[in-house]
Known about the structure:
The complex is a heterodimer.
Chain A: H1 4-13, H2 15-48, E1 53-58, E2 66-67, H3 68-76, E3 80-92, E4 99-105, H4 109-112, H5 120-128, E5 132-136, H6 137-142, E6 150-154, E7 166-175, E8 186-189, H7 190-196, E9 204-205, E10 207-212, H8 218-229, E11 236-240, H9 241-244, H10 256-285, H11 287-295, H12 300-336, H13 350-376, H14 380-385
Parallel strand pairs in A: 4-8, 5-7
Antiparallel strand pairs in A: 1-10, 1-11, 2-9, 3-4, 3-10, 5-8, 6-7
Chain B: H1 2-15, H2 20-54, E1 59-64, E2 75-76, H3 79-84, E3 99-110, E4 116-124, E5 136-140, E6 150-153, H4 154-159, E7 168-171, E8 174-183, E9 192-195, H5 196-203, E10 207-208, E11 210-214, H6 221-229, E12 236-240, H7 241-285, H8 287-295, H9 300-330, E13 334-337, E14 340-343, H10 348-375, H11 378-383
Parallel strand pairs in B: 4-9, 6-8
Antiparallel strand pairs in B: 1-11, 1-12, 2-10, 3-4, 3-11, 5-8, 6-9, 7-8, 13-14
Helix pairs in contact in B: 1-9, 2-7, 2-9, 2-10, 7-10, 9-10
Amino acid sequence: MKFLPLVWAALTRKPARAVLTLLAVTMAFTVFGLMIGLSATIDGVAEQARGDRMFSVPRFSYDDGLPIAVARRIADTPGVKLIAFQSYIPGYVQNEKNHIYLSMGHADMARVFPDWHATPTMWDLVEHERTGIIMSRLQAERWHKKVGDTLTVISPQLKRADGATSWTFKVLAICDDVLLAPDGFIFGNYDYLDKSLPLAKQGRVNEVDYVAADPARADAIAQVIDRAFANSASPTQTITEKRAYAVSNNFGGMDVDVLTHEIALAGLAMILFLTANVIAQSVRERFAEFGTLRALGFGDPSVIAMVVLEAAIPCLAGAGLGMALAAFLAHHIQAIMPPGFGLPRPTITAAVYGGALGSAFLLAFASAALPTVRLMRMDIATALSERE
Amino acid sequence: MFRQIWIVSALNFKSLKSRFWQSMVIVVGLGATIGVLLSMMSLTAGLRQAYFNSGDPGRAIVTSQGAESEGTSNIARADAPVIMDAPGIAKDKDGRPLADRALNMGLPVLHKNGTKGFTTLRGFGPKGVALRPEFHMVAGRMFQAGKRELIVGVGAQASFQHMNIGDKVIMPNGEWPIVGSYTTGDILDGQLIGDTETMLTALKHTAYNSILVRLTSQDALSTFRKAITTNPALQVTVTRHSDWYQKVSNQSTSFLAVMAYIVGTVMAIGALFGCLNTMYAAVSTRGREIATLRALGYGAFPVAVSVILEAVTLAVVGALIGAAVAWALNDGHQAVWGQNIFHLRVSPAEIGLGVSWAVVVALLGGMLPSIRAARRPVVEALRAT
């Protein structure tokens, strides 16, 4: 640490250069944070997705749903345990631009989705107060609701038996969000929805959710179920949660993992040239100084440490600033983008910070490498007599 | 004065060799920025190109009012004959209007890599092929009207499993065989086609999605539109087919374009700082040389211009390298975005855009150092060691 004043003096000798380098490194790490953070979000979602949970939806005419009898037949399929189903209320709040979406589920949803934070107790509340809903925190914040408030949804697509399009609910519980639902969720009572619809529309579900007893057999069960309904009036489309949330499915078929890492790498490569040059230049300018230090008895390790430190300070500070900026942007990115834009929020996890720190050190060492080699080979006498 | 700019700039470029690695900061910085920008934009450009090819300005599409896509549009069965008899529609050899009732639905498919996705299954009426001179059968045969069979595009065959002639596709109330394959050279290549009326019956739908017509000439659009939209019984919109695809492609590419611009902008700012740094360093190492020139009577302006010129040249070289890499890595590769299958593109238009970004960065990055170079007092600079 006794070198700090020396290194600091070297950095502040050309303040403009130091500041510009710092800013360039900051930008590179902003890109790094956003990209690797995005990749972390998608990986996190893919990892949390369960291999044994499965969904069956209508293969065609999605909005018409499946007859509820399909759910019963799926429940009877060997290897299927725990089954629930849900129908959706798509609509808006006050203004057509404020899209909202409610999942009206069967009470067994709590058992099929134990990892979601809507607890069996909350579902019990909804079971007893049929117009009640459970909101995730994100949705509650978006619509400014707290427990006890009412929420009115207009759904032109879903008319009640009396022709009305407005649906009013009471918020009974608010729970935490889950990674699997980046836009939050609202749960309500399926029976209430079903009995409110015109007779001809009753008895249908938009989605059947269930758990396979053996996750290894889930894909095979999916095939069996789709085969079973292939020649019926309501063919199904079945997928395991793991597959539905697989990385390659999440971004319109693009391999986001590769893409984000390539972009992050391009940013770092761009900055490596800059930092390496700046350090090389700084060392070149102070060749005579280093000669003096060596003449005074500074050994190889001390000199190397000084150069590495001089490279490390802007790299680490830039990485810190860049990650902070990335975290800030990540937090606000959904507010900047138009609603329903579909961009997942990059999550800057500890691993992402770790990656940034590691990259910053690598950057510092790589930048300091060549100048250090030159210093080690330095002939003190030549260095001292050198005139620019 | 131009002679002075020329001489000073020539001198700069001659001394570039001694500042090779330093100059590489600009080249690599902008190379990386433009490479990333164009790679990300190759998706948007490719998708737009595919849609652009699909729209024929000689055709018009009729959709229900307010529909953003063919899938959400509805044309009641009874309205179809009224629309198809309207003036402005070209006649086929058999004397019937060149107009076709179209269906458009999502079809679940299995990608070659095993992931599930969707493509579009389209319904063609009797004039579906006559309306599209770009349509050609590749293998097998055309589906027969009234029969439960499908044909598949060559792009869909290349991307999805179970798309060979003879394979069966799950449909409501039974499976339909694939009897042929086709190409159109546009967005339809990634889709499947069947007979509109047969599909309508199978789906128990009561409405078509859209009606496509061939205009008597490109100018006939207004005649046709007027006839259709002044009919109070119809609540439809008439759009030139090429404009329609432009609208659809803007919807699906805006997300990608925004992403490309965000990342590109942040990287460009980083490259700008690098550029500033390099040019300041260049100006300072060449301080004495510049002062000598000034002492010899060269003006401040040519000196400043020469600095900016150097930055711009390096930036453009970097941008071209970045563009070349982006082109080599991406251009022509098949990509999937949502329901669309298309080829990535790094076209001259995108390369031009990339180069202009680089020029802007270099102008901003060269400006301040050039002012410093021009303003530095000659005597001071000459004395400096």
